Amino acid sequence: MKKVILFYLAFVLVVVIGVMAVVFELNYNSIVAAKRDVDVSRAQVEVVLQRRIDLVPNLVAVVKGYAQHEKETLTAVIAARNKAVEALKAVSGKGNPTSEDLAENAKAQDALKTTMSKLLMVVEAYPDLKANSNFLTLQEQLEGTENRIAVERHRYNDALASYNFKITVYPAILVAKIAGFKEARDYFKASEAAYEAPVMKF
Fold this sequence. Notes:
The protein has one domain: LemA-like domain (de novo design (two linked rop proteins)), CATH 1.20.1440.20. The protein is built from six helices and no strands. It has helices at residues 2-66, 71-92, 99-122, 127-131, 133-166, 172-179. Helix 1 packs antiparallel against helix 2, helix 1 runs antiparallel to helix 5 and helix 2 packs antiparallel against helix 3 (99-122).
């Protein structure tokens, strides 16, 4: 009789441990997937920021042909672009950038946006440039890129909110604590100006 009871107790214990292992694995995998979504979304933000950076030399080259004496503005745009490149590299080069890294990148992107706005205001003085097909194409690409930045930033914030929620509800919170997952707080909120489309007056 004792052997039968011990067998049933052992069986129940094995089932309980098995269920706990399955619950742990499912929650762990779910958290890992949510973390991956955050990383992918952040990478997409970086991709569209890089696209903005890549458009700047072409924009400067087109404007330069028409506005040779606007050297100071063109130089400021290139300097701001170079800083934005370095800031983006610093964020992209880290597997898990800190909030400070992201804030520094946003600050550099904001400076680039501001100087680009100044450049686009200079364009107003050059009617031929405003009608130039190369310039118009670049303008459309820039507007599209700014829209993509806003969309990707929104997706990143959604992915981050989902991850943060996932690791704070039961039973995933237990798994998160055991596995060392921590709530992330690096939303793109303190630097919204960096992601607003430049004002283009034509």
